Fold this protein.
Amino acid sequence: MITKQTRVVILTGAGISAESGIRTFRAADGLWEDHRIEEVATPEGWEANPQLVWSFYQQRRRQLLEVESNSGHKALVELEKYLDNFLLVTQNVDNLHERAGSQNLIHMHGELEKLRCQECQHIESMMEEEHLGEEFISCRQCGARLRPHIVWFNEMPLQLPEIEKALTQCDVFIAIGTSGHVYPASGFLHTARLNGSHTIGINLDPPENVYFFDEFFQGKAGEILPHLVQRWTEE
Ligand code: OAD
């Protein structure tokens, strides 16, 4: 069904990194690493308690040094190599897709690796030991406080026009390891469907929008994806 010319857009969520040891968001009663999501993932949370939020993301940033990409991330690299037209959109803020070797990748919810100035918006990748501590870091350009380069609730996801364009042009849309709770990512499936794409879901539990997939594979991405990609890329 998939040939080299098939235009494929993939959306990944926390589930693809679960087998690398990064906890998903909605696993435990709306708590994320024992914090309420609103506390650590909203502009209001940052305003109210910047030290808590900073410390929370610094922990996530340090965790990146201890985890590795898994067979799910790697299978997507093989698929990208095979296809002429491929876009990977991830809601994940970890760097496991790029470390596996993915090239055409959009981090629509930001990146843990990067910090952004809360005043001048300057963005920089900062992953040296000196950037991973508990103290705030100042912007090299204007001296104001840096914040995590993460799209929090009530903030606008990144590169949406580019994503929308790819969704309206793709032949196949595949969502992997995402619960379908968070808009606008959860709506990508509908956009792709409305434009006539074949839609495939891969998830441990049936997500919110499971009924809208043409095909759904239930299980772990790291186990299912290598088989599917091998099948799809067999000449
Ligand atoms: P969720 O935690 O909501 O959902 C993760 C999904 O992955 C669940 O449906 C699990 O069943 C599934 N899952 C778990 N392990 C899996 C595995 N090994 N293989 C396949 N699926 C597995 O995470 P997201 O949908 O990514 O936003 O959450 C979306 C956004 O909500 C996140 O990007 C984050 C959060 O607020 C920001 O940080 C801005």
The chain has a mean pLDDT of 95.
